[in-house]
Structure formats: structure tokens, C-alpha cells
Amino acid sequence: MTIWLTGLPCSGKTTLGHAVTERLLAAGGKAELLDGDALRRDLWKDLGFSRGDREENIRRIGSLAEVLARNGIVAVVSAVSPYRAMREQIRSLSSSFIEVYVNAPLTVCEQRDVKGMYRRARLGELTGFTGIDDPYEPPFDPEVECRTDLETVEESVEKILGAIGARGASTASSG
Fold it and tell me: What is the pLDDT of residue 171?
């Protein structure tokens, strides 16, 4: 299956992705974290941040996630994936898909931003930044919503593991 964590930059996607992956592995499952930033840095250096490049990035991640899922590995994807239509396209091509909306207010995301990307975007030094001058389209009906400004990491992880368990996959959820 594919667990797709989407949300604004600095909303907590990577933190939750690591934690969920660790829990699945600790329970004896097969899981792999596909982090959007790492994939862009290591594999997709040819892509920029135009709408077309962002869509291609998500298409590539979705294809990789589906290959893993077909081979019995839970693909935990942590990617901004700002456009709803692309997430829906990936969902339609996936054998089993759980969308997790990692929801944190823009102000909280800006406070968490250790790289200073939001500050640079607000100063006009960085254009096309999701949440500032490029849209983020929240999911209409995600299987899970994690309010990372109100929940602990563990509370959010338990919600995600509960959704995985409801689909019949093994988890280390202590509920």
C-alpha cells in the first residue's frame, strides 16, 4: 500500500513519515520512506519547481511507490504534492492508497522553517513557493488528517497506523 503524506512545507510530513516507517519496520513489516526532498536532491535533479515539474515529480514518486507496494512494501511518501488533481491521479493508479493530510497553519509552518525558505519567499528571493505565491490545495476527504499543531507526533502516528490496520496491514499500533 501507499501512505501519502501531503501538506505545506514544514507541516511535519517528514517527521511523521520517519516515525510511521520506523513503527512498521519494528513490527516486522516491510516499509520504505520516499521523501520528496531527498528524491529531488538525489534522483530528480532535472526537475525545477514549475507546475509541470512539480506534477512530474509527483508522477515519478507515485510510480515508485506503486512498484514498492506491488512488491509487498508499504511505501510511505512524504511530499508537499500541492495539486489535488495529481494526488487523485496517483490514488487512481494505486492498488491501495491512504491519503494523510498533515495539516498545520501557515504561521506554524513558518515558525518551524529552519532553512529560512518561507522568509526568503516572503522577501521575494524565492518565487513559486508553495503556500506563499504558489497554491497548496488541501485534500477534500483524506483518510487521515493529522493536526500537527495540536497533536503530538505519537498521536498522529497512531492515527496513521490505525488507518493502515483498518486496511488489513500489520502495524505496531498500541492504540
Answer: 47
C-alpha cell at 18: 520517519
Across 18-49, b (16+ Cβ under 10 Å) vs e yields: bbbbebbeeeebebbbbbbeebbeeebeebee
**What pLDDT, on the 0 to 100 scale, is given for residue 175?**
39
Q: How confident is the model at residue 19 (pLDDT cuts 50, 70, 90)?
A: very high
How far apart (Å, rounded) are the C-alpha atoms in residues 159 and 142? 12
174 is catalytic: no
Query: What does the alpha-carbon distance between residue 32 and residue 76 come to, in Å, rounded to a whole number?
Result: 6
Sheet containing 2-6: give its strands across. Answer: 31-35, 74-78, 2-6, 97-103, 144-147
Do residues 61 and 69 lie in contact, with contact meaning Cβ atoms separated by under 8 Å?
Answer: no
Rounded to whole angstroms, the Cα distance separating 27 from 36 reads: 25
Residue among 81, 95, 170, 174 flagged as catalytic: 81
Comparing 98 with 36, which gets the higher pLDDT?
98
Ranges of each domain in the chain: 2-166
Superfamily of domain 2-166: P-loop containing nucleotide triphosphate hydrolases (3.40.50.300)
User: Is 136 within 8 Å of 82 (Cβ atoms)?
Assistant: yes
pLDDT tens per residue, range 138-168: 999 999 999 999 999 999 999 999 999 888 7
